[in-house]
């Protein structure tokens, strides 16, 4: 009996040890999760980044969108969430109101500079649309309020810099990099302060023949030296990072090429609490826009050395998993009285003609004026598309439409495409419109005999396929293709940003019609 019992115990022990060994082996074989580039597969260009204790904040460019200059927060340099915007509206003029044929596409506010000084956060930017340089400041970057300071002239791609002696500067320019000293209250250029070129034709350190002269300045001070990072583009080459350094802020500066890899360029460098350094730059990637990449950085002989052997790694030495764009885009059921921060209006909204409370649980859009097309209509509500693939869908209720009204879901850029509902001669139709040739063409029309239409757009950015496909449903379950795939294209100088999903409604004959959007749902799978 003892013998049998011993054998049983041995067998059980052996199985347990084997199981433990298998578990340990499995645990050892599990790959370590590390971050990947791009850290966000979406349009987040012109990065300026700071660290406050163990928290990172980043600003970016959204140009003609309102609100503008998004502020994003991260604890690990990889996963970011929008926490605020520097302004609700940049200015109030015809271009930003999309009036009289004017617009601010590709304009609005450009590259910003984010700083933290004496317990106050600052964002500087500039705008040809407003004709001014803008500085916003707050004690609470996540909640505001922001104080706005504006002055002339327009200082292109400026970088705000607080020096150790209490003086404040903007370093700016294209080609020649200049410096101006600001008044103590930042309300304008100091009349008798420093105002001069400090790096003549800064891009020439990369090549004599340049397609894009140096711009996009970002300035830091490290170990007593001043460093100015710029982007430039040699003819026949790629976007290139150049850096200049000096012992005095006014120079003289010496420069060198800091990075040439896949056109990844323009941004900031940042240190961690542990003393590690990283560079944050963007890469053009077709119609999805300009995506942020992060790379390790080290100091050698007083120079920043970006990447590994001159290349930006696709896998990072940061032990976290990417959440991708999920911190900057969101689904929405339109409950409550506020829009999530992921939403931005295409140009300045007219708040009289949209509501989350007029019909509880819905976004109501009312047509307050006559427009020709979706690109010129006001109150188009947008979010970023994202990659490698992304999908957006909505349920549209249309019983409030009037003749000539068109409403729906758009993939917005110069060469836009949309699926929506059109009211004509008291009859409703589901339509797909393509502006692939930059002129809108109605490619398919299907009669609609009900007051509800489910709409969906899929975007495929894999390997720069850049295709958008359009669908509709009459019951929310069975999707049918409509029209033709849109060959998306990143347009310069028109929109100068990645494609946006957008909810819209506009009138072509008479005002007062309205539609209700029940929800907006995004996903990272598409219908093949």
UniProtKB/TrEMBL annotation:
Task: Provide the active-site residues from the annotation.
Answer: 46 (proton acceptor), 215 (proton donor)
Instruction: Report the residue ranges that make up the Beta-xylosidase C-terminal Concanavalin A-like domain in this protein.
Output: 331-521
Query: Keywords for this entry?
Result: Glycosidase, Hydrolase
Pfam families, sorted: GH43_C2 (PF17851), Glyco_hydro_43 (PF04616)
A GO biological process held by the record: carbohydrate metabolic process
Do you know which SUPFAM superfamilies this protein is assigned to?
Arabinanase/levansucrase/invertase, Concanavalin A-like lectins/glucanases
User: In chain numbering, where does the site feature Important for catalytic activity, responsible for pKa modulation of the active site Glu and correct orientation of both the proton donor and substrate fall?
Assistant: 157
Q: Which molecular-function annotation in GO is an example for this chain?
A: hydrolase activity, hydrolyzing O-glycosyl compounds
Family that this chain belongs to: Belongs to the glycosyl hydrolase 43 family.
Protein name per the record:
Beta-xylosidase
Organism per entry: Marinilabilia salmonicolor
């Amino acid at each position: 009996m003892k013998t049998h019992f011993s054998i049983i115990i041995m067998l059980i022990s052996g199985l347990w040890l084997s199981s433990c060994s298998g578990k340990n082996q499995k645990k050892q074989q599990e790959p370590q999760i590390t971050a990947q580039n791009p850290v966000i597969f979406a349009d987040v260009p012109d990065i300026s980044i700071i660290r406050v204790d163990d928290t990172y904040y980043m600003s970016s460019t959204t140009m003609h969108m309102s609100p503008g200059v998004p502020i994003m927060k991260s604890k690990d340099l990889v996963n970011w969430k929008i926490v605020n915007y520097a302004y609700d509206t940049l200015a109030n003029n015809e271009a930003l109101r999309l009036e009289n044929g004017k617009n601010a596409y590709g304009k609005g506010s450009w590259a910003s500079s984010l700083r933290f000084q004496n317990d106050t956060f600052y964002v500087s930017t500039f705008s040809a649309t407003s004709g001014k340089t803008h500085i916003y400041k707050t004690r609470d970057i996540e909640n505001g309020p922001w104080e706005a300071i504006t002055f002339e002239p327009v200082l292109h791609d400026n970088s705000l810099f607080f020096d150790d002696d209490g003086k404040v500067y903007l370093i700016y320019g294209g080609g020649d990099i200049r410096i101006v000293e600001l008044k103590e209250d930042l309300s304008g250029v100091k009349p008798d302060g420093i105002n001069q070129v400090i790096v003549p034709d800064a891009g020439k350190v990369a090549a004599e023949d340049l397609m894009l002269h140096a711009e996009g300045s970002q300035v830091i001070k490290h170990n007593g030296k001043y460093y100015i990072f710029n982007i430039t583009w040699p003819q026949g080459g790629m976007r290139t990072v150049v850096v200049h350094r000096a012992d005095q802020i006014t120079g003289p500066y010496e420069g060198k090429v800091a990075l040439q890899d896949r056109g990844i360029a323009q941004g900031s460098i940042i240190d961690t609490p542990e003393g590690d350094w990283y560079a944050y730059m963007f890469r053009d990637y077709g119609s999805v826009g300009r995506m942020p990449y992060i790379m390790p950085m080290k100091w050698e002989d007083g120079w920043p050395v970006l990447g590994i052997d001159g290349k930006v790694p696709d896998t990072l030495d940061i032990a976290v998993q990417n959440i991708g764009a999920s911190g900057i885009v969101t689904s929405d059921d339109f409950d409550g009285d506020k829009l999530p921060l992921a939403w931005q209006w295409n140009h300045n909204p007219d708040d009289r003609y949209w509501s989350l409370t007029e019909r509880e649980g819905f976004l109501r859009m009312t047509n307050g004026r006559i427009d020709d097309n979706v690109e010129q209509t006001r109150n188009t509500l947008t979010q970023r598309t994202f990659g490698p693939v992304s999908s957006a869908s909505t349920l549209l209720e249309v019983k409030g439409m009037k003749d000539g009204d068109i409403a729906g879901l758009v993939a917005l850029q110069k060469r836009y495409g949309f699926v929506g509902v059109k009211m004509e001669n008291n009859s409703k139709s589901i339509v797909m419109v393509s502006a692939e040739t930059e002129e809108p063409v109605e490619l398919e029309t299907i009669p609609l005999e009900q007051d509800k239409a489910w709409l969906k757009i899929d975007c495929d950015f894999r390997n720069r396929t850049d295709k958008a496909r359009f669908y509709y449903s009459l019951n929310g379950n069975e999707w049918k293709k409509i029209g033709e795939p849109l060959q998306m294209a990143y347009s310069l100088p028109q929109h100068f940003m990645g494609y946006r999903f957008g909810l819209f409604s506009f009138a072509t004959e008479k005002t007062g019609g309205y539609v209700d959007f029940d929800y907006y749902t995004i996903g990272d799978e598409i219908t093949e």
